[in-house]
Amino acid sequence: MARIYKKHGSEFKAKVALEAIKEQKTLGELSQQYSIAPTQISTWKKQVEAGCSAIFDNKDGQDHQEEIDRLHRVIGQLTAERDFLDHVLKR
């Protein structure tokens, strides 16, 4: 008989992993509470701990700066086109 695996959403995984990090309950208790294997909870906990440093990386600011620079170029181009058309239509 084939084994049926549950698919858990990212919010659920984060909730369980954060509870495991808090260590207010044992992995066994969390396992019974959420009907998940303790090893799975440990895996999610390790993933959260490994990914926490990415929150503090400044990569998001760099991505936004590139988008801001691109939008400034577009605004400059549109302003130049508007000024040109305004000058031509006033003749």
β-strand number: 0
What are the secondary-structure elements, in order, as H or E?
HHHH
The average pLDDT score comes to 87
**Main structural class:** mainly alpha
Fraction in beta strands: under 5%
Relative helix content: over 70%
Largest β-sheet summary: none
Poorly predicted runs of 5 or more residues? none
Q: From the alpha carbons, calculate the radius of gyration and give it in angstroms.
A: 26 Å
CA distance, first residue to last residue: 84 Å
Question: In DSSP terms, counting alpha (H) and pi (I) runs of 4 or more, how many helices?
Answer: 4
Rough outline:
elongated
> How many discrete domains?
2
Describe this structure in words.
- The protein has 91 residues and is mainly alpha-helical.
- The protein folds into two domains: 7-56; 58-91.
- The mean pLDDT is 87.
- The chain starts with 9 loop residues before the first helix and ends with a helix.
- It contains four helices and no strands.
- Helices cover 77% and strands 0% of the residues.
Question: Secondary-structure map with pairings?
Answer:
Layout: H1 10-22, H2 27-34, H3 38-55, H4 59-89
Helix pairs in contact: 1-3
Short description:
This protein is mainly α and 91 residues long. It has helices at 10-22, 27-34, 38-55, 59-89.
